[in-house]
Amino acid sequence: MSDRPHVLLSVAASLDGYIDDISDTRLLLSNDADFDRVDEVRAGMDAILVGANTIRADNPRLLVRSPERQQRRVEDGLPASPAKVTLTTTGELDPESRFFTTGETDKLVYTPDSAVPAVEDRVGRVATVCGMGEPLDVHAVLADLADRKIERLMVEGGGTMHTLFLTAGVVDELHLVLAPFFVGQAAAPRFVRPAVFPQNPHRPMTLAETRQLGDVVLLRYLSSRDG
Ligand SMILES: NC(=O)c1ccc[n+]([C@@H]2O[C@H](COP(=O)([O-])OP(=O)(O)OC[C@H]3O[C@@H](n4cnc5c(N)ncnc54)[C@H](OP(=O)(O)O)[C@@H]3O)[C@@H](O)[C@H]2O)c1
Question: Which atom of ligand 1 is nearest to the CA of 138?
Answer without folding.
Answer: 31
